């Protein structure tokens, strides 16, 4: 005979499974948060004593007490600005073309698939690509420009994907209304679609640039300088960035350099938190403006 399970018993069993799943999920999240908290507390305890104006204004030194992150901090700032100048126009322009102007055919589908796949490629692959294309083929040498071009390639898939998702959130009724009033397609995109999609686009841009600030492997591959005692004075100058400087300090056996690395990590975390806070602020500000 086939046993038919009563409905109340089935509901109780499903309820127990749901409770077990929630318990396991909560335990995993608690373990991850505990691990992250322990790491952050350890980094803060190791590095807060080195945080000072001198640490931010001194160049790297073989003496850990005199070493600072001035060159790495300025290099990160220059690299970020140059990467943004290269990646943002290309990324947003590509997203606008694919969403608003391109015809739906096999070629656009192929481009979309490749963009999606490129967003998941390990960052070191971009470093190898930048080494071959920018450093060797285009003879940019191991310069700030080569680093910015490489990091722009890294940021482009994220910017394009985020911008396309922002454009898709704009209702078609706004497009049709603008076109019905006599606006051209470009005028519709510029004055109607882009202002509505701007919060999502800005959020994607800032998050992609946050990833650029924290990357180490691609810059090591293309030749970011580990030790440098001067600031970049042009696009073809050698450079270093905060992650590379932190990596250099962590490879040294002296405890004082480990404390310098912890202090550098704190500065880098503060920079990343500031960029993410800026993304949240800009998104909320433009959303409120659109609501009005």
Structurally, the number of domains stands at: 2
Question: What is the CATH first-level class name of the largest domain?
Answer: Mainly Alpha
The backbone outline, from C-alpha atoms, is: globular
Q: For the residues shown, what is the average pLDDT?
A: 84
State the distance separating the first and last CA atoms.
67 Å
- For this entry, what is the oligomeric state of its chains? single chain
* CATH topology group of the largest domain: MetI-like fold
Spans of at least 5 consecutive residues whose pLDDT stays below 50 are none
State which percent range the strand residues make up.
Answer: under 5%
In total, the number of strands is 0
Compute the CA-based radius of gyration: 24 Å
The share of residues in helices is: over 70%
Number of helices: 11
Summarize the structure.
The chain has helices spanning 7-47, 53-57, 70-101, 106-118, 123-137, 144-168, 172-180, 185-214, 217-222, 242-250, 255-291. The protein is an all-alpha fold and 292 residues long. It has two domains: 7-50; 53-291, MetI-like fold, CATH 1.10.3720.10.
List the helices and strands and how they pair.
Elements: H1 7-47, H2 53-57, H3 70-101, H4 106-118, H5 123-137, H6 144-168, H7 172-180, H8 185-214, H9 217-222, H10 242-250, H11 255-291
